[in-house]
Amino acid sequence: MVFRRRKPLSLWQKLRALVLPRGGWGRAFRYLRHRASRIPDAPHRIARGIACGVFASFTPLFGLHFFLAVFLAWVIRGNIIAALIGTAAGNPLTFPFIAMLSIDLGQTILGTRADGVPMSQVMTAFGQAGDEIYRNVRAIFTAEEMRWDRLERFFRGVFLPYLVGGTGPGLVAAIAAYWLSLPALNGYQRLRAARREARAQRLSAKAEATDEGNGK
């Protein structure tokens, strides 16, 4: 392939890139902001899309955040590309804080703190749930016995509290993202329009000067 690396990244380098992108998270976020500001759409639609992506990041639907963000953007007529960019609000740096806040709040609302899974075991619980789903699907085609005990504990102790508890903070973060990004997008698009107009005027003036010079 034309763009394949000459020296493939090692597993450690790939894992490191997930936690610390090349150039740092500051550069990564500046790039995402730049990409969002250059989307050819109305500012309010772009801001809606970003808000959808941010909200999706507060749900426990890992692996489905892109699809949820796109669906929400489609429902409220937001920009799809901006929704995908907005999911960057959920990343290896923020997910631990989002998970702690959401699960703790959800357990308080549901009154299931006694059935809760310790925060140190949350990611392990996600892995065990995925493994059990895989085994149950495989059991359909083999002689293995289906088991649901881990999934039941995962649903009551992690998934449901995460889903319930993440809704409120997710809405707050999404609304904040909308109102913070909207004026920035409006200002950037006005600036780009002014620059295009100034460039057009300079080209027009240069063309007129050239015509006058040729006329002489």
Q: Secondary-structure element order, as H and E?
A: HHHHHHHH
Query: Unreliable runs, pLDDT <50, ≥5 residues?
Result: 11-20
Radius of gyration: 24 Å
Q: Estimate the mean pLDDT confidence.
A: 78
Helix percentage range: over 70%
Shape: elongated
What is the terminal-to-terminal distance?
57 Å
Beta-strand share of residues: under 5%
Number of helices: 8
The largest pleated sheet is described as: none
Overall description:
The structure is a single chain. The protein is mostly helical and 216 residues long. The protein is built from eight helices and no strands. The chain has helices at residues 11-19, 24-37, 43-56, 65-75, 80-86, 95-110, 122-141, 149-215. Helix 6 packs across helix 8 and helix 7 (122-141) packs across helix 8. The longest helix is centred in the C-terminal third of the chain and has 67 residues, at 149-215. The protein is elongated, with a radius of gyration of 24 Å. Mean pLDDT is 78; it is low at 11-20.
Which helices and strands, and how do they pair?
Layout: H1 11-19, H2 24-37, H3 43-56, H4 65-75, H5 80-86, H6 95-110, H7 122-141, H8 149-215
Helix pairs in contact: 3-4, 3-5, 3-8, 4-5, 6-8, 7-8
